[in-house]
Amino acid sequence: LFDIVWSVLCKKLEDKTKHSILWHRICHALFERIPQQCLEPTLDGVFKYITPSLSSPCPLYGLLGNLPVENSHAKFLLTCKYVITKTLSEPRILVGYLTSNESLRTLLIDLLLVALRLWADGSALRHMTELQHRRLSGMVAIATTCVDIQQSPKKQQELERLVMQGVQSHLENSSERVRVIGMVVGEHLMKSLQPQSAEKLSFTYDTSEEVCWLKSLMKPIEEQEKELLEAVEPVRDEETEDIQKVDNHDPSSLHYGTGFVQSSTCNDDSDDDLQPYDMSNDPDSNQTTPPRYLRTCLKGKMGI
């Protein structure tokens, strides 16, 4: 039931908030009033079915607005918990949301620092599952692509230190898969942090499905947005076909169900040929037996 509700609700709210500032404000006000203990499961449903986008503003911004700027618990969830313990399978949903305006962009640097600290921790790296490591590396890659590090010179030195520490931790790992991911992400991070440097960090590794996925998150934002739109279009086409199939049938079935029969299609005089039932000898149901005793009369008067 949870999945059914959110799969329908997210699509409807996306369309409403995309074309109406009023709906955007309504959704923002609703999310502001969600109790703290209910906010995380609510966001779980939203992240599962919202359309990923790197355009500004993205569909998620239409629902949440500047929620993490105004709500400290939402800020913790979006910049810490969904990075460390509940990393998203599609990191562009969260990163695209944090690039929607200047107020949220400051949180994107915080998210990148949290992700990099975990990515650079050799002890944490040994205890991660492959899925967690893949998603965390993807979050680091797309966040580095979208963030403007030159606007935060105070944090650039810390980012460079974490990158070098993370690359070293990955190269010292016994798993070849982990080492390759460290090479791919490390190259991208150093290129973003030091675009003018003559010495480029470069490794040689084999191409795999995982490497291709990570590199797709390192493409320019315009190319990624085009790919996301192309991925969404077939789904919209299928939904449009389903609606057209319903429209081609009886219009009443759309509103009342296929078993509904309109009254206009029935002959209102079709019962004229039926023989009426003789009810002249039926007793009058309103007649009551008169009381024979005083106690019966009193009970009737007192309503006992």
Task: Output the radius of gyration.
Answer: 32 Å
Q: What series of H and E elements makes up the topology?
A: HHHHHHHHHHHHHHHH
Envelope shape: elongated
Amount of helix = 55-70%
Describe the biggest sheet?
A: none
Mean pLDDT: 81
Individual helix count = 16
Q: Hey, roughly how much beta strand do the residues contain?
A: under 5%
Task: List segments where confidence is low: pLDDT < 50 over at least 5 consecutive residues.
Answer: 249-266
> How far apart are the termini?
49 Å
In terms of structural class, how would the helical and strand content be classed?
A: mainly alpha
Any overview of this molecule?
The longest helix has 28 residues, at 221-248. The protein has helices at residues 2-19, 21-32, 36-49, 59-64, 67-70, 72-84, 92-98, 102-119, 122-127, 130-146, 153-171, 176-193, 209-216, 221-248, 251-256, 294-302. The protein has 16 helices and no strands. By secondary structure, the chain is mostly helical.
Topology:
Elements: H1 2-19, H2 21-32, H3 36-49, H4 59-64, H5 67-70, H6 72-84, H7 92-98, H8 102-119, H9 122-127, H10 130-146, H11 153-171, H12 176-193, H13 209-216, H14 221-248, H15 251-256, H16 294-302
Structure at a glance:
The protein has helices at 2-19, 21-32, 36-49, 59-64, 67-70, 72-84, 92-98, 102-119, 122-127, 130-146, 153-171, 176-193, 209-216, 221-248, 251-256, 294-302. The protein is mostly helical.
